[in-house]
Amino acid sequence: MGLLSWLAEQKIAEAMARGEFDDLPGKGKPLKVEDLSGVPEDLRMAYKLMKNAGYVPEEIQLQQEMVRLADLLAACEEGPEKQALKKQVSEQRLRLNLLADERGLLTNPAFRQYEEAIRRKLE
């Protein structure tokens, strides 16, 4: 153990002895552990920063919008409204396919291998 680690451990032990950790918010509750095993190690920090900043990639926004539109379609009766919703779904699907093509997902062997599972998960 290095000197800095030893010093940090000593400071923590002293604070515990003084009871400084006794009334912390969330005491006795389980920690929220994020599973980042699916994110490559070199991208995890960037992923966490973007997630904490509230950034959502455009393809995820499009998928969320498509789910919302699908719910509206299911609740809508036949008529001009339903036709307009169908048109919006088609436009969203086209935009999503264009994004996938721009980013090379359609030619990526890993994406092709897992494409069906990914699409099911997003839907």
From TrEMBL:
Source organism, top-level taxon: Bacteria
Domain DnaJ homologue subfamily C member 28 conserved: 7-74
Pfam families in the cross-refs: DJC28_CD
Stretches assigned to coiled coil: none
InterPro entries xref list: DnaJ_C_subfamily_28, DnaJ_homolog_subfam-C_membr-28
PANTHER family: DNAJ HOMOLOG SUBFAMILY C MEMBER 28, OS08G0560600 PROTEIN
Protein known as: DUF1992 domain-containing protein
Annotated organism of origin: Paenibacillus rhizolycopersici
